[in-house]
């Protein structure tokens, strides 16, 4: 039965949520309730202070079941792609830093061990990471090599049965608080992944300060100075760029959902504000130009939601290709950032304060726009997909 006009939900105009299954809605609502009760009351302080209580929150996120929730076994829930997606949507509706923590833990660190690790490595690390008793990070990006990881300088050389690791990684989420770093390095046998536990001699992690974005998130530089690793530190199933790039694909998938949550939070903040802000003796929601902004926001929000859901269904059917993930990340991050910017104008001067989430989201989304593949790189992925011609070099 069609909904009557007076029953339209202004936060989900097309009732996209009705396309979710009961289990997907349950996960969505459970994560939303957790963020409302446990995260949102503290976000302004964390962002202003540039802190994130990861050690405190990790076991709670483990109990919530979102750490590596889309992986099977080893304490992981084995959730579907859409179930994981709606969880990411609610996490990032609170803050991109929160979703980044969960994404790096599950889609990058845990997924790399799950997909490419030995059985011993999986048994040792995955249950601890899933429960939040241990924290992981993923070291791929370097100071001079972000979009071009094939030319990374970090190198591991054989010395007897051991490996000796030298180099550095940059912009690593969770870096200084991680118990385990999954580090990618060049070897004589091609690109390989290594498990580097915290405290390993020669391994240091230094936090990056002065950030104007993702302030409620730990971002670090990793350095490796003649780090000696045993033979069983290497991930046996990963050779070449396919390993780290496949894990990045999982993280990008979470982003294309998460940014829908950030966009929704900006839109609903602007809508609520417009209904109560009085100017010229009436709510600004009654002015044509304000209504135009709100309408443009909700149009793009609902389209981004549908994009995320369609790609999620394709992924659950085993039909999602890298180009689909690039489509979602490129479109949905760009959409969320434009919604955040427009929402800020509705809030006027109030929009630049931490009393409202809009500029915090906008600042965060500036990072999301370029991490896990810049907009330019995803444009070229799609360009190659539709033309058959590579334009990278």
UniProtKB/TrEMBL annotation:
Q: What Pfam families would the database entry show?
A: Acyl-CoA_dh_1, Acyl-CoA_dh_M, Acyl-CoA_dh_N
Cofactor(s) annotated in UniProt: FAD
Q: What is the lineage of its organism?
A: Bacteria, Bacillati, Actinomycetota, Actinomycetes, Kitasatosporales
Q: Does the keyword Transmembrane apply?
A: no
By its UniProt entry, which InterPro entries does this protein fall under? Acyl-CoA_Oxase/DH_mid-dom, Acyl-CoA_Oxase/DH_mid-dom_sf, AcylCo_DH-like_C, AcylCo_DH/oxidase_C, AcylCoA_DH/ox_N, AcylCoA_DH/ox_N_sf, AcylCoA_DH/oxidase_NM_dom_sf, Glutaryl-CoA_DH_mitochondrial
Q: What is this protein called?
A: Acyl-CoA dehydrogenase family protein
Residues forming the Acyl-CoA dehydrogenase/oxidase N-terminal domain are: 21-132
Q: What does the UniProt keyword field contain?
A: FAD, Flavoprotein, Oxidoreductase, Transit peptide
Similarity field: Belongs to the acyl-CoA dehydrogenase family.
Acyl-CoA oxidase/dehydrogenase middle domain span:
137-227
Q: Which residues belong to any copy of the Acyl-CoA dehydrogenase/oxidase C-terminal domain?
A: 239-386
Q: Which Gene3D superfamilies match?
A: Acyl-CoA dehydrogenase/oxidase, N-terminal domain, Butyryl-CoA Dehydrogenase, subunit A, domain 2, Butyryl-CoA Dehydrogenase, subunit A, domain 3
């Amino acid at each position: 039965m069609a909904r009557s006009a007076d029953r339209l939900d202004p936060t989900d105009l097309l009732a996209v949520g009705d396309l979710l299954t009961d289990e997907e809605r349950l996960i969505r609502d459970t994560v939303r309730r957790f963020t409302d009760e446990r995260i949102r009351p503290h976000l302004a302080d964390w962002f202003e202070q540039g802190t994130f209580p990861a050690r405190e929150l990790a076991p709670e996120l483990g109990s919530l079941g979102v750490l590596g929730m889309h992986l099977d076994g080893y304490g992981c829930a084995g959730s579907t792609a859409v179930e994981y997606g709606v969880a990411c949507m609610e996490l990032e509706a609170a803050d991109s830093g929160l979703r980044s923590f969960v994404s790096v833990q599950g889609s990058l660190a845990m997924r790399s061990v799950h997909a490419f690790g030995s059985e011993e490595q999986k048994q040792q690390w995955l249950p601890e990471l899933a429960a939040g008793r241990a924290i992981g990070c993923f070291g791929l990006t370097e100071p001079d090599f972000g979009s071009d990881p094939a030319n990374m300088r970090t190198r591991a050389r054989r010395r007897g049965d051991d490996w000796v690791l030298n180099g550095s990684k940059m912009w690593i989420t969770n870096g200084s608080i991680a118990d385990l770093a999954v580090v990618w390095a060049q070897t004589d046998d091609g690109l390989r992944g290594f498990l580097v536990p915290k405290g390993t001699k020669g391994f240091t992690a230094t936090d990056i300060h002065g950030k104007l974005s993702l302030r409620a998130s730990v971002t670090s530089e990793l350095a490796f100075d003649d780090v000696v690793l045993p033979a069983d530190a290497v991930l046996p199933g990963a050779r070449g760029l396919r390993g780290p790039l496949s894990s990045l694909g999982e993280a990008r998938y979470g982003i294309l959902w998460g940014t829908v949550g950030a966009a929704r939070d900006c839109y609903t903040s602007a809508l609520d504000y417009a209904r109560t802000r009085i100017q010229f003796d009436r709510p600004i929601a009654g002015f044509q130009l304000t209504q135009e902004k709100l309408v443009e926001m909700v149009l793009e929000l609902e389209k981004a939601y549908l994009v995320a859901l369609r790609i999620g269904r394709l992924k659950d059917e085993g039909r999602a290709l890298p180009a689909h993930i690039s489509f979602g990340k490129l479109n949905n991050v760009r959409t969320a950032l434009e919604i955040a910017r427009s929402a800020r104008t509705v809030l006027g001067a109030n929009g630049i304060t931490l009393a409202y989430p809009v500029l915090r989201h906008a600042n965060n989304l500036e990072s999301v726009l370029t991490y896990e593949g810049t907009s330019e790189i995803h444009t070229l992925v799609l360009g190659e997909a539709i033309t058959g011609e590579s334009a990278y070099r």
